[in-house]
Amino acid sequence: MKYTIITPDGKVEERIQRKEPDAKEVSEILGGYMELIHIKWRNGVVDAFVNEDAKRQNLPINLMATALWHNYHFPNPKGPYADLNKDPQGHINAFGDHIRGTMVMMTGI
Asked: What is the model's pTM?
C-alpha cells in the first residue's frame, strides 16, 4: 500500500508498505484523532485523513492540503491555489475553511 504524507511546511513523503496503515498508525502521524476527507490527487479522487481537532489545537495551516481539498470541492480552471488568498490579518482564506496540520492520503496499492 502506498500512502502520501503532506506536512504544513510543504514536505511530501511517499511511503510504501505491505499493508494499509491502520487507524493507530495514521492517528500517530496526525497527532490526534483522524477525520476522513476527499481530495483530488493526480488523475482521481482519493481518501485522505487529517487531525479532527487541528483547528482547536491551533496547528499550522497546511496550504498544500487546503489547496487539494479546496480543488475537490470548488474546482477552479486557474489551478488549485487560485482562490487561496490571505485576509488582512494574513490568514489563509479558502472560502472560510482550511486544513491544519499534517494530511495522510491513501494514494495507491
From this structure: 0.79
